[in-house]
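re: ur msg from earlier - yeah i can do the flavin-adenine dinucleotide complex, just paste it... oh wait u already did. ok heres what im feeding in:
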Amino acid sequence: MPDCCVVGGGVIGLSIARELSSRGLAVTVVSRDPIQSSASWAAGGIFPAQPSSDTLPPGLSPLEQLTWASDRLHHRWAADLRDETGIDTGFRCCGTLALDVSAPTAAELRDDVLRWQRLGVRHEPLPTDTIATLEPALAAAVASGFVRGGYLLPDETQVRPPRHLAALRASCLARGVELLDGGCVREFETTAGRIAAVRLQPSGTGPDSLTADFVCIAGGAWSEGLLAPLGFSIPTRPWRGQMLLQRTAPGLLHRVINLGAGFEYLIPRADGRLLVGSTLEDAGFDASTTAPALNHLRSLLQAILPDLSFAAPEATWAGLRPGSPDGLPTIGQLPDVANGWLATGHHRAGLHLSTGTAVAIADLICGESPQQPLDSFSPERHQTAATVVR
Ligand SMILES: Cc1cc2nc3c(=O)[nH]c(=O)nc-3n(C[C@H](O)[C@H](O)[C@H](O)COP(=O)(O)OP(=O)(O)OC[C@H]3O[C@@H](n4cnc5c(N)ncnc54)[C@H](O)[C@@H]3O)c2cc1C
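and the outut:
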């Protein structure tokens, strides 16, 4: 019998499993879908620049503290994952140009500057001729007036999500974690305020049920449905994001290119692949791509690099971000379920927040004091009269 059953094999579930196993717990991860169907695989892998100080800067909100801690952990995890598994996750400090291309992006940047100043994030205003010097591929967009100015954020990092997930899976397996791929959790059997069994859809090959001392639900956008039989309504509404992958010459762009606050972006990989993203759509659990969204991403690419012509994309895909009504993740113990834990609702930042979330959940399960304040993320905050369904 495992000490802990983690439901969900995305970046949150795998990171939790890795952290728990490193603390000596036997862990099983139950994961319904192929990894390519997860939000984690679909993500761009941008990690916004953090305060450059070595100690936690004062005055940060709980989410900013978790982000800062997660960011620092990523530096260590990327090196450890490479040593343990031989997989280079593509984690690198590439820097970002945050561009002003319209009135809305100019307004977003004005807000961002205030936030960067408050947090102590390194940023540098750039005249347009410097933008073209730093990234010669942008010269045409500068000359045409599409790019009107911007900022350099030298400390922004990126990771390649499929590689990060492959490394996490390999690291988990090397630590003895059991990965139950294709296992679909149907419900949880509770007795005396504890999850006594995790019931799975009969598959003919895997087990029909699992028992564990602890159960941690990390089901991404599907967490709300998973929790319903337990009597909780914790909203993790899916927000679809579409992506387009283009092959370009290596070195065409060196930095991530954000339009304004980064809802739309280009992410250059070291091998020349260029990701163009993304959208934020309320489309239920429909994770298909659509022609209008892909056309929009293509026109974005053409506007930023107008003097280049592009072949058909190498790939396109969509993923479902796990939403959260207040923009905060949910991390903590399930109310009135002594051995039930929850880590979900990371919306647009789950890759980035995965390391800090894993350490926080492992601290809580192991009875240690978490290093960041977690009260703002507690599952209880969703349990208002309107949302309690049991
Ligand atoms: C287009 C796009 C771009 C993004 N870009 C970034 C970015 O640049 N930086 C960043 O930090 N974040 C980014 N994100 C957000 C990030 O991807 C998510 O916040 C994160 O991946 C959520 O991880 P998760 O493990 O909670 O969910 P998921 O990765 O979706 O995993 C959920 C898991 O639960 C499993 N599951 C569901 N139901 C069941 C069941 N009944 N039984 C068993 N298993 C079940 C699924 O099979 C899956 O393994 C992006 C997301 C998208 C879609």
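cool cool. DSSP finds ten helices and 20 strands in the chain. ping me if u need the other ligands too
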